[in-house]
């Protein structure tokens, strides 16, 4: 039956002005267009290209994205990446000067690198360990480790509560395998195996004709211990940065120190530190001993430093004696007192124009070289000149413990030992600038608002004086006397919390890592069944969770120990029977024994066939194992 496309015909007729299918009027063209549309439709139905319709894939939502992010964060791969990033982030902290360690070096770096310094400031490279990006890596690593430990801990607890897996049906397929025959009963063999494996700290479970055992759970315990130790280390380091305090104090021989905030020369602390966290203790410097090389190419090199101190803990603590050496600090509670430096403090006295003592005491001079050539200042705030007017004095200069003599023409010391002390000073008067409220170093003299004393010829007043000599100012205004020299020592008092936890975490991490690397998870099965010849067939097999060359050796040792309960016997008829199957006490006739001999012969043939089949299976699976467990 033939059909016509009414719509096509109508369109064609309309286009040709009602030509009624006349080919000249465009009828064949309409037919070709229709055929082309049908071909295109068929081709599109056969195409494997994706259509224009979108797949209706449901969105995972906020909770799904949160779960995906959590799985990624707690994966081992991300934890290793974060640990690597943390190690990389610590590199700038060891290369670029840090504000919380040495502010002076940071300022020097900023002066020398005026282009890089603003960039470093924005990137917080002068405060790496307290920066936002370092803290973010630190916190993410902490969360990653915590999220990794919790599920693995529950999994490990489940493994401890579970029973060892049952013995496989064919033990000879295991990587380590051995077998032998014995006259002991199967129950005796399995009982001995259970006792032996339990004595070797295996978890043992008997099921049917086999004993299953498993050992090496400390491997996973070591892995968990390693991760927990890393968290302890992170917490200890965080606590050490947040609650730490570090300060310095220069103490002249005979003076003391009390562990309170105003006593420090410089002090820095963590963001969560409070002044009340300072421990109550104090100490005084009784004596200081320093020895140096006196000759040879190492002349002047320090040999030893020792500060003899007396210290007390608490307000009513008993005073004790001790010595502080380089790298041998004094431990007082959770604080440590380190010996960092030493030098000399000339003892001077200043009399004003009215003859009264305006100042007297030791003044610490700071070393400038290895021979302790030192610079310092003397500031006198309570002073009156010869006319009774209030004024302020300032002296600055150098001190050398061993002067080379006037012929050298230099004020550099020739040795760090106190052999020929000389003090060289220049004098100023005016305003010291101590009333403006700004912090001022006791080792520097601000001469902006001061005038230098002049000699009669107009040259600056400067004098080189020895112990016991005096330096007089013009017009009888005042005089300074060099009375002697005392030693001083620089101490650093450090209070850090979490050091014990950090040490314990580091040791635990090493122990856990060693356990996870060297302890092997392994399983041992022992099966004992009665053989066709009446003897007991003993099979032992071992399987390790990872490849280990020690597994066959361990199985061999266990098999050797098992032979005390299950002595091996050679293949053949049971003990007490002759080769023909007759007992020595058997008085039956030859004819009467024929059926029995036939039956024994069938059993022997059957046993040999099964033995040959077992050998064939072993040859297919691998080399046959020796009774010691070694594969041939």
From TrEMBL:
PANTHER family: CYTOCHROME C BIOGENESIS PROTEIN CCS1, CHLOROPLASTIC. Residues 1-13 have a biased composition (Low complexity). The keyword Coiled coil does not apply. It is a multi-pass membrane protein. Residues 39-48 have a biased composition (Polar residues). This is Cytochrome c biogenesis protein ResB. The lineage of its organism: Bacteria, Bacillati, Actinomycetota, Actinomycetes, Kitasatosporales. One of its GO terms (biological process) is cytochrome complex assembly. It is found in: Membrane. Residues 596-632 have a biased composition (Basic and acidic residues). The chain crosses the membrane at residues 78-96, 132-154, 224-243, 500-519. It holds the Pfam family ResB. Residues 1-49, 566-632 are annotated as: Disordered. It comes from the Bacteria. One of its GO terms (cellular component) is membrane. InterPro entries: Cyt_c_bgen_Ccs1/CcsB/ResB, ResB-like_domain. Residues 76-555 form the ResB-like domain. Keywords: Cytochrome c-type biogenesis, Membrane, Transmembrane, Transmembrane helix. The keyword Thylakoid does not apply. It comes from Streptomyces bathyalis.
């Amino acid at each position: 039956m033939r059909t016509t496309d009414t719509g096509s015909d109508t369109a064609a007729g309309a286009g040709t002005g009602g030509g009624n299918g006349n080919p000249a009027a465009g009828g064949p063209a309409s037919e070709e267009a229709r055929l082309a549309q049908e071909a295109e439709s068929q081709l599109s139905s056969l195409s494997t290209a994706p259509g224009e319709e979108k797949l209706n894939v449901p969105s995972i939502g906020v909770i799904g994205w949160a779960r995906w992010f959590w799985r990624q964060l707690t994966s081992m791969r991300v934890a290793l990446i974060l640990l690597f990033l943390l190690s990389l982030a610590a590199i700038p902290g060891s290369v670029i000067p840090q504000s919380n360690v040495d502010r002076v070096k940071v300022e020097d770096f900023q002066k020398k690198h005026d282009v890089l310094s603003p960039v470093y400031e924005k990137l917080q490279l002068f405060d790496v360990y307290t920066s936002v990006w370092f803290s973010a890596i630190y916190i993410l690593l902490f969360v990653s480790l915590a999220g990794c430990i919790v599920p693995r801990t529950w999994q490990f607890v489940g493994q401890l509560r579970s029973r060892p897996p049952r013995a496989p049906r064919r033990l000879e397929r295991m990587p380590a395998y051995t077998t032998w025959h014995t006259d002991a009963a199967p129950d005796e063999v399995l009982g001995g195996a259970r006792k032996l494996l339990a004595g070797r700290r295996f978890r043992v479970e008997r099921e049917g004709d086999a004993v299953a055992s498993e050992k090496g759970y400390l491997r996973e315990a070591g892995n968990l211990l390693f991760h927990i130790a890393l968290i302890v280390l992170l917490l200890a380091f965080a606590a050490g940065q947040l609650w730490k305090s570090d300060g310095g104090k220069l103490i002249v021989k005979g003076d003391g120190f009390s562990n309170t905030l105003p006593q420090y020369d410089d002090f820095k602390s963590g963001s969560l530190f409070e002044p009340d966290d300072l421990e109550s203790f104090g100490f005084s410097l009784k004596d200081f001993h320093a020895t140096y090389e006196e000759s040879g190419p190492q002349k002047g090199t320090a040999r030893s430093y020792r500060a003899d101190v007396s210290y007390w803990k608490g307000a009513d603590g008993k005073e004790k004696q001790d010595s502080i050496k380089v790298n041998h600090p004094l431990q007082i509670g959770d604080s440590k007192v380190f010996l960092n430096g030493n030098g000399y403090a000339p003892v001077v006295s200043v009399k004003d124009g009215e003859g009264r003592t305006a100042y007297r005491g030791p003044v610490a001079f700071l070393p400038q070289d290895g021979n302790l050539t030192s610079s310092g200042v003397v500031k006198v705030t309570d002073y009156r000149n010869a006319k009774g007017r209030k004024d302020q004095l300032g002296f600055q200069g150098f001190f050398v413990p061993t002067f080379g003599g006037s012929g050298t023409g230099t004020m550099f010391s020739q040795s760090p030992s106190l052999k020929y002390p000389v003090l060289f000073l220049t004098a100023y008067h005016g305003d010291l600038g101590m009333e403006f409220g700004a912090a001022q170093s006791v080792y520097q003299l601000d001469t902006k608002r001061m005038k230098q004393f002049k000699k009669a010829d107009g040259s600056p007043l400067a004098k080189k004086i020895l112990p016991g000599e005096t330096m007089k100012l013009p017009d009888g205004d005042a005089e300074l006397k060099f009375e002697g020299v005392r030693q001083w020592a620089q101490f650093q008092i450090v209070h850090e919390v979490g050091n014990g936890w950090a040490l314990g975490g580091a040791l635990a991490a090493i122990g856990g890592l060693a356990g996870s690397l060297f302890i092997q998870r392994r399983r041992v099965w022992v099966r004992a069944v009665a053989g066709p010849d009446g003897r007991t067939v003993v099979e032992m097999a071992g399987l390790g969770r990872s490849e280990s060359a020690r597994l066959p050796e361990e199985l061999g040792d266990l098999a050797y120990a098992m032979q005390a309960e299950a002595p091996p016997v050679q293949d053949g008829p049971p003990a007490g029977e002759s080769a023909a199957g007759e007992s020595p006490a058997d008085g039956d006739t030859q004819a009467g024994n024929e059926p029995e001999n036939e039956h024994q012969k069938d059993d022997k043939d059957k046993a040999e066939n099964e033995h040959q089949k077992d050998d064939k299976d072993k040859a297919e699976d691998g080399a046959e194992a020796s009774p010691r467990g070694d594969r041939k």
